[in-house]
Design brief:
Number of strands: 31
Structural class: alpha/beta
Helix content: 10-25%
Shape: globular
Radius of gyration: 32 Å
Distance between the termini: 80 Å
Largest sheet: 14 strands, mixed
Number of domains: 2
Length: 474
């Protein structure tokens, strides 16, 4: 028998197995360490994001307590660094703020802010968030009405539509429609025959799943701007002030023709009238509308001050033209009982739809006259504080001007009373006729919602965050 010695072979196998096991254990340990580092890095990134978001929330809170302060309470230019503390662990991170305030006429409009967050335990990973902080304005809506209203079947509405009264919605709404009432009494002027009590919103509109009622009222007293303040600013802070000369008559006033960043001003000294039925008179009385300019004299050409682009007209005003930049026109006589109107004399457009904007505030009504373009386009925020937005009923003997083809309102309409731009009627020898615009489109302007002109009426005095986004850090 031959004997073999296996001790050496066993030793070799043992060494090979031990080396393999060591490599495997070392690899697993390295992999686990790598996973741990990745996990720690991910956690640090997420913490940095949370801290950056906390910076935005902090400054929103700060503005709601110190509404005019864009220097973080320091009185010094930024950036401003804050530690983020945990009740148990103490300091765990920080956020650093860069703040830029936009002011018109010395009044803060909004704040653009960036917030960079970082984890105290790993400062390699920073996250940067930016946003705009402002008080919400009426520009967030396509329409705000303080009365019962009827949106006809030819209406196309893009953007939120709200009424403090009831709504008959036969048009095509592409956003939410809200009414502040549970029910309302619909009479023949709203197409109800016989008159009856109806739900807060009803009608033949296709998107009834977007109708909501009752919802909270929008306080018209709260969104009414301080006309005395705007008048004072126009007189004393670089705006344009046009004093009353008509003696409180709505047969004269001023004609404002915008041409880029300038406005050509004319005194309207004589007008023609047209007979009409007014929206705000349910009895159907006849009125003379002195809306067609017969004679005017040139006053001057004014350049808008980009730091205080405000025009205050203490008389009736006709407006039209092409606007560059942001501008607010207030038409009012707050010191007397005379409540002037704004007359839309022609198309109102912008040179740049993302950067330009108009807010037109009438103490009484915003009106579209008899003689106007067949296809009328008006951009801006139109506010009728006491009266209504609309075109009165002009009978068939004013043909072809009684009927116009289309009206496009790109912005916001705020009307204290019932609005209307198309009316059906069967009287005065005009049987089965209609008056107004055949097709009507109303669309809110998302650019104005985030950057409105100065003194646009606010829906709340509380600041909020919009246009939130994350930025790259280089």
């Amino acid at each position: 028998m031959v004997k073999t010695n296996t001790k050496g072979s066993i030793l070799i196998f043992t060494l090979i197995f031990s080396a393999t096991l060591f490599v495997v254990v070392l690899s697993l340990g390295g992999l686990q360490l790598a996973h741990l580092k990745v996990g720690q890095s991910t956690l640090s990134k997420e913490k940095a994001f949370v801290f950056a978001e906390a910076g935005l929330q902090y400054y929103k809170w700060f503005l709601n307590h110190f509404p005019d302060d864009t220097q973080d309470g320091t009185g010094q230019p930024g950036p401003y660094k804050h530690t983020y503390t945990d009740p148990e662990s103490g300091e765990v991170g920080s956020f650093t703020l860069d703040i830029t305030g936009k002011r018109y006429c010395g009044v803060l409009q909004y704040v653009d802010i960036s917030s960079v967050g970082e984890d105290k335990n790993d400062t390699r990973f920073k996250r940067k968030l930016s946003a705009r902080i402002l008080r919400p304005t009426v520009a967030e809506y396509a329409f705000i009405i303080n009365s019962n209203v009827w949106a006809g079947a030819d209406r196309v509405i893009v953007g939120p539509y709200h009424s403090n009264g009831g709504i008959r919605m036969d048009g095509a709404n592409q956003s939410v429609v809200t009414s502040a009432v549970e029910s309302w009494y619909c009479d023949s002027t709203f197409g109800c025959s016989p008159a009856s009590t109806t739900p807060g919103i009803w009608g033949g509109g296709a998107n009834s799943h977007l109708w909501k009622y009752p919802t909270p009222q929008i306080d018209f007293a709260g969104i009414t701007v301080d006309l005395f303040e705007i008048k004072d600013i126009a007189q004393n802070q670089g705006g344009i002030f046009l004093p009353k000369f008509s003696g409180g008559s709505k047969t004269a006033g001023y004609h404002l023709v915008f041409d880029g960043n300038t406005v050509n001003v004319y005194k309207v000294t004589n007008t023609y009238y047209a007979w009409s039925i007014h929206i705000d008179d349910p009895t159907g009385n006849w009125y003379k509308d002195y809306h067609t300019i017969a004679n005017e004299t040139f006053v001057g050409s004014y350049t808008l001050d980009e730091n205080c682009p405000v025009i205050f007209v203490e008389d009736q005003a006709w407006i039209e033209g092409r606007i560059q930049g942001k501008v607010t026109v207030a038409v009012a006589d707050p010191e007397t009982s005379f409540d002037p109107d704004i007359i839309i004399a022609g198309n109102i457009t912008y040179t740049n739809e993302k950067q330009d904007g108009l807010t037109a505030i009438a103490e009484n009504s915003v009106l579209i006259p008899l003689i106007v373009d067949n296809d009328l386009t008006i951009r801006g925020i139109f506010v009728a504080q006491k009266g209504y937005f609309g075109r009165n009923l002009y009978p068939c003997w004013y043909s072809p001007y009684d009927k116009r083809n289309s009206l496009s309102v790109l912005g916001t309409v705020v009307s204290n009373q019932r609005l209307g731009t198309k009316w059906s009627y069967s009287t005065w020898g005009c049987w089965g006729e209609w008056s107004g615009f055949s097709q009507r489109v109303g669309s809110y302007d998302r650019y104005l919602a985030s950057s409105p002109p100065p003194f646009t009426p606010q829906l709340s005095n509380q600041y909020r965050i919009i246009n939130w986004k994350e930025d790259e850090i280089y």
